[in-house]
Amino acid sequence: MTARPCPEAPLPSYEQLTADQAAGRTYVACGKPLDDDAVLAGLVLGHEGPYPMTVNAWACPPGAGR
C-alpha cells in the first residue's frame, strides 16, 4: 500500500488537529510547516464548548512529494 499524496489525504476530525494545524501553521497530512504554495484541502468543523469552530485545512501542492 502506498501513502496518499498530501492533497488527497482524508481530513482529520477537529479533535484530532494539533494546535499548529488548527492555527494554520502546518499541513494537516504531513505536519510540516506551511510553504507559500500551500493549497486549501478543505474545512474541518468542530466545537469548542458551545462555540462552533471552522478551521482551514492546508495541504502540500500536488506533486510536492510529501
What is shown here, in short?
The protein is mainly beta and 66 residues long. It has one helix at residues 19-22; strands at 39-48, 51-59.
Description:
- There is one protein chain.
- With 66 residues, the chain is mainly beta.
- 6% of the residues lie in helices and 29% in strands.
- The protein has one helix at 19-22; strands at residues 39-48, 51-59.
- A two-stranded antiparallel sheet has the order 1-2.
- Strand 1 (39-48) and strand 2 form a beta hairpin.
- The longest helix is centred in the first third of the chain and has 4 residues, at 19-22.
- The radius of gyration is 12 Å and the shape is elongated.
- The mean pLDDT is 86.
Q: Which properties best describe this structure?
A:
66 residues; mainly beta; 2 strands; 29% strand
Fold topology:
Layout (H helix, E strand, L loop, with lengths): L18 H4 L16 E10 L2 E9 L7
Antiparallel strand pairs: 1-2
